[in-house]
Specification:
The structure is a single chain. The chain is mainly alpha-helical. The protein has two domains: 91 residues, no CATH class; 60 residues, no CATH class. It has eight helices and two strands, in the order αββααααααα. The chain has a two-stranded parallel ribbon with strand order 1-2. Helix 2 packs antiparallel against helix 3. It is globular.
Length: 215
């Protein structure tokens, strides 16, 4: 959906009902308005924020806070990659990580950057390590950003849309195009065949399913 803003009104027009899945996003506050079964905030964005602050803040208090947070995130990502742990042992380590996260978020900090990041951890602590609970959920939203990149490049090259109708048309076409690609289909001939069917029958066919690989 192409819209003038990324605010909650636009999101609520897009998510017309609760999302029965794990919503993976950055820390943009408007995403909190979306009702989802569970959510994961992007840890890459959090690490980028640490790197950004590193460029302007070299205080001992900040460096200590950043070191502890980086170690926590590294341990969480390492636990996800580790195999061979029993379910009980894996859960114990998850619980330990959550206790470390709570301690870091609840700490008292004089450094303003450490205090600001700790407040963010406190607000979102429930959804920072969600990826440890679901084998198929990543710790970042890189996949989503890669999926919307073609639309972003098109917007820049065409200098945005000239009308609301054009924006709505682009949103539909890009959705269909990317869905066909994700299902392993060539979008151009698939769309051409759909338009032929529309001319002959007056109706568009449903989106085709992904091809089933032969043994």
């Amino acid at each position: 959906m192409v819209d003038r803003t990324r605010g909650s009104p636009a999101l609520n027009r897009f998510f017309t009902q609760a999302f029965d899945g794990v919503l993976i996003t950055d820390f943009w506050s408007a995403y909190a308005s979306v009702q989802a079964r569970d959510r994961q905030y992007c840890l890459v964005h959090l690490l980028r924020e640490l790197e950004k602050v590193d460029q302007t803040n070299a205080s001992a208090a900040w460096l200590r806070f950043a070191r502890h947070l980086r170690r926590l995130l590294r341990d969480a990502l390492g636990l996800r990659r580790r195999s061979g742990l029993s379910a009980e042992r894996y859960q114990r380590r998850c619980n330990r990580l959550n206790r470390r996260l709570a301690a870091l978020a609840d700490g008292l900090y004089r450094d303003p950057d450490a205090r600001r990041l700790a407040e963010r951890l406190s607000r979102h602590r429930e959804y920072l390590l969600t990826f440890l609970d679901y084998a198929e959920v990543p710790a970042d939203n890189n996949f989503a950003e890669r999926q919307i990149r073609p639309a972003v490049v098109l917007r820049k090259n065409s200098q945005s849309n000239r009308s609301e109708r054009g924006a709505a048309t682009q949103g539909v076409l890009m959705s269909v195009y990317r869905t066909l690609q994700l299902r392993g289909l060539d979008p151009t001939p698939t769309i051409a065949e759909a338009l032929k069917t529309r001319v002959l029958t007056g109706r568009l066919p449903p989106l085709p399913a992904a091809p089933i690989a032969e043994d």
